């Protein structure tokens, strides 16, 4: 015991003698600069996998898996998505620990839960920390939600409730002959905001107090609009960018339909969820994600020309929807065989899910390629 004490004393003495003098130590601390917050680039490049998740050959006979939402918890990916076929939509849940094995993961069709049968589509999942509940937000001809204390128990999702008693009047006034779709919730320190689209060039936003959520949602306002409805189409998602002190930054993504009829994503940033959105990579020539800035992995055929409805893979799962852009962004999206016959019924289009991963320090990609005046919606 005594020899161990002597050894410890000798080691401590060596450590003390190795420490810098007081002035030198303080100078070293002053010289250290804080780590700069991660910044979004002004242009993006991506690599893509082939299809990772598609319909099962089972009694459901669904035609597509689409509209994914995804979170990663302790190495397990939890995915919710729409299931499509000519008869209509519902939703499915699966989980896995490796995207390479995603297609072998069992499906749990959510119409088996109290969430129920009927039209439910375009899910978004997040953990609402103040209530210690998971929320699944989706469309059912209204803006709906279900809750569950355990994301890994798909049978636990409650029956639908809605944020509004009926479709808000401002949407009725602007929607024309199109559809109210793709509800998305994100919260800051005081408010929860609900975004939605109408396929007619309008992005809507409502809000309620964080303490009142999910109740008390205000009448929507138009937060962005475009006379060309194809440029501001649907599938909006908003994220908080993880960074240092100072102004917060948010990223807005919206799906558009290009002049070549293919789907792609545009992007904007703002320092407030309810603030003004400044263009980031928002054109066909410089998109957030489009066929012209996506390269397929080695040995993978260019199986889709559309980078459509999808979501950033989130490991920070709470209602702030924070993402760390110091690391390459991963985005789970829906794609489709470009040789799909033109006359295929919309609900039966064969969408599958794949993953794009950001190539860091990307320069601008190539142009959009030949234009085509006909757009397939």
TrEMBL record:
GO molecular-function terms, A-Z: alpha-L-arabinofuranosidase activity
Coiled-coil features, chain-numbered ranges: none
One GO CC term, this protein: extracellular region
- Signal peptide feature range: 1-18
Indicate where this protein resides in the cell. Secreted
Pfam families documented for this protein: Glyco_hydro_62 (PF03664)
Does Lipid metabolism count among this protein's keywords? no
Tell me the domain of life: Eukaryota
Q: Which InterPro entries match?
A: GH62_arabinosidase, Glyco_hydro_beta-prop_sf
E.C. code: 3.2.1.55
Q: Which GO terms describe its biological process?
A: L-arabinose metabolic process; xylan catabolic process
Q: What class of enzyme is it?
A: hydrolase
Listed under catalytic activity are: Hydrolysis of terminal non-reducing alpha-L-arabinofuranoside residues in alpha-L-arabinosides
Sorted UniProt keywords: Glycosidase, Hydrolase, Secreted, Signal
Q: Which family does it belong to?
A: Belongs to the glycosyl hydrolase 62 family.
Q: What function is annotated for this protein?
A: Alpha-L-arabinofuranosidase involved in the hydrolysis of xylan, a major structural heterogeneous polysaccharide found in plant biomass representing the second most abundant polysaccharide in the biosphere, after cellulose.
The name of this protein is Alpha-L-arabinofuranosidase
Taxonomic source organism: Chaetomidium leptoderma
């Amino acid at each position: 015991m005594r020899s161990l004490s002597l050894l410890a004393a000798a080691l401590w003495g060596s450590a003390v003698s190795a420490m810098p003098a007081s002035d030198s130590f303080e100078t070293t601390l002053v010289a250290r600069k804080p780590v700069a917050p991660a910044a979004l680039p002004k242009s993006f490049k991506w690599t893509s996998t082939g299809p990772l998740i598609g319909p099962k050959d089972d009694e459901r006979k669904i035609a597509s898996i689409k509209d994914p939402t995804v979170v990663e918890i302790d190495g397990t990916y939890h995915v919710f998505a729409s299931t499509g076929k000519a008869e209509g939509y519902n939703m499915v849940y699966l989980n896995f620990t490796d995207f390479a094995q995603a297609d072998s993961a069992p499906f749990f069709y959510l119409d088996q839960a109290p969430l129920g049968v009927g039209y439910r589509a375009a899910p978004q999942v997040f953990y609402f920390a103040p209530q210690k509940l998971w929320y699944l937000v989706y469309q059912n001809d209204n803006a709906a939600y279900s809750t569950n204390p355990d994301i890994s128990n798909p049978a636990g999702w409650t029956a639908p409730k809605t944020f509004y008693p009926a479709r808000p009047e401002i949407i009725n006034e602007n929607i024309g002959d199109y559809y109210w779709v793709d509800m998305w919730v994100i919260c800051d320190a005081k408010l929860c905001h609900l975004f939605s689209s109408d396929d007619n060039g309008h992005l809507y936003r409502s809000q309620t107090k964080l303490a009142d959520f999910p109740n008390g949602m205000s009448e929507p306002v138009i937060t962005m609009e475009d006379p060309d409805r194809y440029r501001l189409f649907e599938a909006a998602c908003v994220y908080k960018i993880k960074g240092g002190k100072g102004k917060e930054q948010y990223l807005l993504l919206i799906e558009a339909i290009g002049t070549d009829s293919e789907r792609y994503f545009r992007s904007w940033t703002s320092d407030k969820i309810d603030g003004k959105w400044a263009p980031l990579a928002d054109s066909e020539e410089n998109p957030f994600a489009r066929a012209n800035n996506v390269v397929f992995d080695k040995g993978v055929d260019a199986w889709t020309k559309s980078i459509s409805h999808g979501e950033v893979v989130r490991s920070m799962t709470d209602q702030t929807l924070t993402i760390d852009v110091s690391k390459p962004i991963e985005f789970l999206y829906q794609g489709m065989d470009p040789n799909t016959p033109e006359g295929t019924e919309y609900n039966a289009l064969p969408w599958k899910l794949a993953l794009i991963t950001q190539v860091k320090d990307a320069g601008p990609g190539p142009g959009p390629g030949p234009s085509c005046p006909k757009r397939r919606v």
